[in-house]
Amino acid sequence: DRGLVHRDIKPANIILDREGKVWITDFGLAKLYDQQRSLSRTGDAIGTPRYMAPEQLRGICDARSDVYSLGITLYE
Protein backbone atom coordinates (compact mmCIF):
# COMPACT_ATOMS: atom_id res chain seq x y z
CA ASP A 1 0.00 0.00 0.00
CA ARG A 2 2.89 2.38 0.68
CA GLY A 3 5.03 1.41 -2.28
CA LEU A 4 7.77 -0.24 -0.26
CA VAL A 5 9.45 -3.45 -1.41
CA HIS A 6 11.38 -5.26 1.35
CA ARG A 7 13.44 -7.52 -0.98
CA ASP A 8 14.63 -9.87 1.81
CA ILE A 9 11.61 -11.52 3.44
CA LYS A 10 12.83 -14.66 5.23
CA PRO A 11 12.36 -16.34 8.64
CA ALA A 12 15.32 -14.49 10.17
CA ASN A 13 13.63 -11.16 9.37
CA ILE A 14 10.27 -12.00 10.95
CA ILE A 15 9.66 -11.88 14.68
CA LEU A 16 6.66 -12.39 16.96
CA ASP A 17 6.01 -10.21 19.97
CA ARG A 18 4.49 -11.45 23.24
CA GLU A 19 0.96 -10.86 21.97
CA GLY A 20 1.66 -12.94 18.85
CA LYS A 21 1.81 -9.96 16.49
CA VAL A 22 4.14 -10.44 13.52
CA TRP A 23 6.82 -7.83 12.81
CA ILE A 24 9.05 -7.64 9.75
CA THR A 25 12.60 -6.48 10.52
CA ASP A 26 15.78 -5.57 8.65
CA PHE A 27 14.79 -3.00 6.06
CA GLY A 28 18.39 -2.60 4.88
CA LEU A 29 17.52 -3.71 1.33
CA ALA A 30 14.06 -2.12 1.20
CA LYS A 31 13.28 0.39 -1.53
CA LEU A 32 10.35 2.52 -2.58
CA TYR A 33 8.86 0.96 -5.69
CA ASP A 34 8.54 3.21 -8.73
CA GLN A 35 7.05 1.53 -11.79
CA GLN A 36 8.98 3.89 -14.07
CA ARG A 37 12.37 2.90 -12.64
CA SER A 38 13.92 -0.41 -11.77
CA LEU A 39 14.89 -1.03 -8.14
CA SER A 40 18.33 -2.16 -9.20
CA ARG A 41 20.24 -2.56 -12.41
CA THR A 42 19.17 -5.53 -14.51
CA GLY A 43 21.22 -8.51 -13.45
CA ASP A 44 21.72 -7.32 -9.86
CA ALA A 45 20.30 -9.95 -7.50
CA ILE A 46 19.65 -8.46 -4.06
CA GLY A 47 18.36 -10.61 -1.20
CA THR A 48 18.75 -14.13 0.12
CA PRO A 49 18.73 -16.52 -2.88
CA ARG A 50 16.82 -19.31 -1.10
CA TYR A 51 13.82 -16.98 -0.61
CA MET A 52 14.01 -15.00 -3.84
CA ALA A 53 11.43 -15.12 -6.63
CA PRO A 54 12.83 -16.27 -9.98
CA GLU A 55 12.48 -12.79 -11.50
CA GLN A 56 14.25 -11.28 -8.49
CA LEU A 57 17.24 -13.49 -9.25
CA ARG A 58 17.35 -11.74 -12.64
CA GLY A 59 17.27 -8.31 -10.97
CA ILE A 60 13.56 -7.60 -11.54
CA CYS A 61 11.71 -6.98 -8.30
CA ASP A 62 8.33 -5.61 -7.20
CA ALA A 63 5.77 -6.33 -4.47
CA ARG A 64 5.04 -9.77 -5.93
CA SER A 65 8.62 -10.75 -5.11
CA ASP A 66 7.93 -10.11 -1.42
CA VAL A 67 4.73 -12.19 -1.64
CA TYR A 68 6.74 -15.06 -3.17
CA SER A 69 9.37 -14.81 -0.40
CA LEU A 70 6.65 -14.76 2.26
CA GLY A 71 5.06 -17.85 0.70
CA ILE A 72 8.32 -19.78 0.93
CA THR A 73 8.77 -18.59 4.52
CA LEU A 74 5.27 -19.74 5.51
CA TYR A 75 5.76 -23.06 3.74
CA GLU A 76 8.92 -23.75 5.74
Question: What does this 3D model show about the protein?
Answer:
Strand 2 and strand 3 (22-24) form a beta hairpin. It is built from two helices and four strands, in the order E-E-E-E-H-H. It has helices at 54-57, 63-75; strands at 4-5, 14-16, 22-24, 31-32. The strands form two sheets. A two-stranded antiparallel ribbon has the order 1-4. The protein is α+β, with helices and mostly antiparallel strands and 76 residues long. Helices cover 22% and strands 13% of the residues.
Which descriptors would you attach to this protein?
76 residues, alpha+beta
Condensed summary:
The protein has 76 residues and is an alpha+beta fold.
Overall SS class: alpha+beta
Distance between the termini: 26 Å
Shape label: globular
Helical residue percent band: 10-25%
Mean pLDDT: 85
Q: Please give the oligomerization state of what you see.
A: single chain
Write the layout of secondary structure elements.
Elements (H helix, E strand, L loop, with lengths): L3 E2 L8 E3 L5 E3 L6 E2 L21 H4 L5 H13 L1
Antiparallel strand pairs: 1-4, 2-3
